[in-house]
Amino acid sequence: MRRALAAVFSLCVAIALPSPVLSQGDIPPVNFTIAFIGDQGLGPNAEAVLNLIKSEGADAVVHAGDFDYVDNPAGWDGQINSILGPDFPYFSSPGNHDAARFYGSGGYQEFLAARMTRLGIPWNGDLGAQSSFYYEGIFIVLTAPGTFGSNHDLYIRDQLATDNSIWRISSWHKNMRSMQVGGKGDETGWGVYEESRRGGAIIATGHEHSYSRTHLLNSFESQTVSSTNNTLVLASDDPNTPADEGRSFAFVSGLGGLSIRAQLLSGDWWASIYTSNQGANYGALFGVFNYQGNPRLAHFYFKNIDGNVPDEFFVQSTVGVGNGGANQPPPQ
Asked: Which residues contact 331 (CB under 8 A, 6 or more apart)?
């Protein structure tokens, strides 16, 4: 259910609105699909990925930074509108190539805010850079560590601590070196990864122009694998116990259309790697939530513009309110 717009928004740089209270009955619609992309660009490859998203019937996009690479906010927004439409839910956090034109009149944030306003989606904070909102029963936190601002780990911690939703997504652009398989260095700090994990949030990033996904981890800083099962079970930390129960995974979905890079790194914490070494093509990671009517189950698959699926897995959530579907096994 799309939430009604509570107030008239002004398209300012930092706009703060109270987050709606999520009730126990708020779950995503059956087979609600989000496409995760990053590192897009303008032109045929980016358009092919957007057409793939449309043909897959996605209900929303989460774009982890680097929009068009030429500082053209109007052109980038126009490319989205020409394929997905001006009222398509498209949520984005800025990357390093968006920094010069993110804020100010005619900037990327202004177009993102206008879209949110048209859709009637209220948000909390500095939209895209340090913000959170609910959409169709999913809690989304967008930050910009290494690009804008500071204390993103504390913001993520505080936002997730007050949330009671089953599904939580924590998305930003840049990476730590061990959380990508290309040539990127340590750019965000481990705090944003660990606080997202403790809150039971799925971690969606971009920056490196390839696709990679970790196993379920109980520590990102030490890359400690909790399970190699192809059904990843999200868990949040109980602050009333000394143990750290948080479990999550991270992925890089950076094949939005600009370029495809080679694999330079590896590690036993990676469940899937898809780069030019593996013959990668552009594409998107799709997450289907409330899969087949199980509110705590999601089906994920990366699909490229040729129709190939190099990675497919399930995610089960034990976080948030309610018990619906908690003990149901994923379909075979």
From this structure: 291, 292
